[in-house]
Amino acid sequence: MSFDPPADAEARRAVAPVICYPNDTLPQPDLALYARARADAIKTGEIVVPPRDAACFTLPAGHFFRITSVEGPQVGDLNLWNAQDLSERFYSGKTRALHGTHLTTGQRMWSSFPALRPMATIVADTLDWYGKDAFGGSVHDVIGTRCDPYAGNLLSGGQYHYCCHSNLTRALADYTGLSLAEAEPHVHDVLNVFMCTGFTRNTGQYFMKASPVRPGDYLEAFAEIDLLGALSACPGGDCGAQHSSDTASCHPLRIELFAPPAEALAGWSSPAPNGYDRSHGA
């Protein structure tokens, strides 16, 4: 059923938008402090994530992690948790509401309720030059949920096991000793690292296009709290055609960990959980 537009339809459409979450009062990261700390940091570890698979890493608050494209264009799906409490995890929806659909230098990955605090701050992004293209696409999105076997089964009836959701589930189970059934509920909506995405203007559908990432490009972040992370090297490769595929050209991703000298972060402290009293009006 469709309806004729009212006489004032154009006037209704012309109402100016209002930003839902004005973010000028957000606590701002001290990027200059982080840069000084990073300059003297030493590398403490490296993990290579194989194509169509995932791997976990842990990182203390005040350290840095870098995700780098190696060998060929490749996107990755990133989950973050509080290393001591898996119930506190990356909240992509609130991060999107606070910063927009795509993240870059100076923006943060926020955690779930009730903590709602910065988990990580992006300190370097070699793809920040990309901006927004003519299609409305940009890089490092917080709008896609992760490719998963349930949507795949719904749309095609298949049983594909190497999508990002399954990769992250296996990696978390292996790393923590949880069973697959125990680990799966902790896997959550991701930061799509290096992925180039947007919404079509005519239908509002989520789209992807071949990522501009090339070997040597990286995204680097500062750990605001103790982190457990998991990164999946998406089976879609650069996601220029499809995102759950055994035929797409896929490549590994590298995770590097860096520790700054303790004195380099003088005056910095890990953010406390959100100050709301949780009384909810009762």
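The record above closes out task 2.4. Task 2.5 opens with a second protein, given below.
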Amino acid sequence: MYDIAEEPHMHQARRQFLKTSGMGLGVTALASLLPQNALARLDSTGGARAKRVIFLFMAGAPSQVDLFDYKPDLDKQFRKPLPKSVSQGQRVTAMTRGREQLVAPSMFKFHRQGKNGIWMSELLPHLSKVADDLCIIKSMHTNAINHDPGKTFICTGAEIPGKASMGAWLSYGLGSMNRDLPDFIVLNSAYWTGGTRNVQALYSRLWGSGPLPSKHQGVAFQTSGDPVLFLSNPEGIDTGIRRRMLDLVGAVNQKHFDEIGDHEIQTTIAQQEMAFRMQASVPELTDVSNEPEGIRRLYGPEVEKKGSFARNCLLARRMVERGVRFIQIFHRGWDHHTILPKQLPGQCFDIDQPSAALLKDLKQRGLLDDTIVVFAGEFGRTVFCQGRLERDDYGRDHHPRCFSAWMAGGGIKGGLSYGETDDFSYNIARDPVAVRDLHVTMLHQLGIDHHKLSFPFQGLDQRLTGVEESHVIHPIIS
């Protein structure tokens, strides 16, 4: 039987073995550094096209019917029941179960955009101008029908909490490209022009490290005050005093590690050193006053508000320049069960110009070629109405059977519409893409074989993509 009291002796015995073996601790220490730069090469698909990811997460689930999945014939179906041959008895939420499913066509106009004539909503005038950089995937699907498991699934690869997030996996698998900032940074947007009524909470486990060492978890920047909590020195403590304190604490922690061998102690030492360096790097990063006026104007008027989606997109570009591996920007308020036509334009105002500006800004600096930008929510919305139904007033329930996302950069084809849904944007008609397929494709572009990016925990090799078979979406890769 395992006795936790014996654990320090087990670690000591292991260290003694390594000291007396031909390898020695020096080689072992070198091996411990391999994941920083070598894991992707050891377990590589060969030929990485991207180095980093910016994930624009629209929490609450945008309506694909009103933004990307144009269905002109739906006008003829207004207020008619959704045919049972389409719904096929599929599960719905408790909010619409047992109620009449009346079709609600989008009230917004669509236009063909870019060289290939991709259909896009009038609500996205700025993104429409960069349509040739977008790959719109209209055949996404997921297992989750409620927000919490849906968000958890797309962020961590599992509906059950406790798994490592994608950013944590990339930090673990690819290592750091800089020494003064975290590998994984989270930006939560604080302002919503849409004035939406349904804004679900975001949980730190969406950017957690799960079973991976905790140094790989995301660092969430704050929308007010210090960008990172407790980053500033207390009153009366200067940098020199802070350095001496850190050296003393580090020495105590190192002695503790030598005694018991817990690698989380090394993580603590590394994170404390990172926090010290961040005292200089973070204020410089978040000070956008030196950005040219033309660049700030590119991102739109909201860029002047700290914590806005526009400001976060500009910060994401600055993070990319400084070698941050994974940046996740959350924008909430997309849960439009009622009065969607009133609320959706405001939501789109928040994200349209900044998202397009981010792509333009990355591109003009030569950074889009090796940066993957992803735009997605946790699922889609129903074509049938929830609540009041008029031509210009309707709501939509959750819909996991199909939804739209887009990708750009990092070797992804631009000007492409991939996958199709049926005439009601209810079922996938061609080229289905599961959430894990999206993960696999992103990893592939980063040079990682998803089968080999794993971590042993509780008797299993944990993976972002789980055990179900997943596939690279080769047709969208240039």
